[in-house]
Amino acid sequence: MQEIDYIFFLTSEMTDRLRVQANKEKGVIIEFVVQYEALISGQWYPVIRYDTAHGFAHKDIMTKKGRIVKQPLHFETYNLAFTYASMDLKTNWQRYRSDFEKET
Hints:
Helix content is 24%, strand content 48%. The chain is α+β, with helices and mostly antiparallel strands.
């Protein structure tokens, strides 16, 4: 089994990052986590997480108050879901951060 585990910073200020973890067997992803985290007032907050916990690929939207909204992903493979998750977070992290910060 091949393990993937890294942090990718989205800004030069290092205030926004992706935490990526995945396990692959023969080129096939069998589980993954791709999480966008924001440094706000000196503390790291998970904002959006894509993962395969609970036996299916899904998106978790976190709130400042600790609520988690779960949205299932409808991809044929975890490889496709993993690619989508990475691309979505790299493209939309600024909007996700803004929405998170606006929540009261």
